[in-house]
Here is the input.
Amino acid sequence: MNIDLYLFNLINRLSGKNALLDYVGIFCAEYLGYVLILLLSFLVIINLKKYWRTAIEALVAALLVRFVIVEIFYHFWFRARPFVELGFTPLLNISKDATAFPSGHASFYFTLSTIVYCNNKRFGVIFYLASIAIVISRVFSGVHWPSDILAGAVIGIILGLILNQVFRKHAYKVIRNYNK
Here is the structure.
């Protein structure tokens, strides 16, 4: 048995057995990401001067990675979702024609978490933990293979680190030119 199928079965076999656990899995897979966006907004409201740049950079980076980089993967690589390959009904309403690799949710939320972490370690850890809950629940719900999640998370972290450096260099250059 391949490791992807083994890990998928290990996580997904818990779904459909307990209504409360299914509810938590669905909440994490579908709605916890909105809580992270609200938390980011809340940080800006609490301290605009300190967090506005982090929020803008995190959202711009996450959107760029998810809707440009990951979309490029989607045009060149199709991978059927687990519920299609294994023939069961997932907990989430996802199109059977949508590609699974890499996970758009993982790439988006791990990019977001990386930018937040680079700017504020304490909040970054909270964002990473929530991102882990989101992606594990996507496997639990039957819509992603573990390798889809891993690929999306790696893409998100690496590009988040690169974009964080780009933002820092650009911001430094803008501030330097402004002060001349």
Remarks:
- The chain has a mean pLDDT of 89.
- Residues 40 and 46 are 10 Å apart (CA to CA).
- The helical segments are 3-12, 19-30, 32-46, 48-76, 82-86, 104-119, 121-140, 146-179.
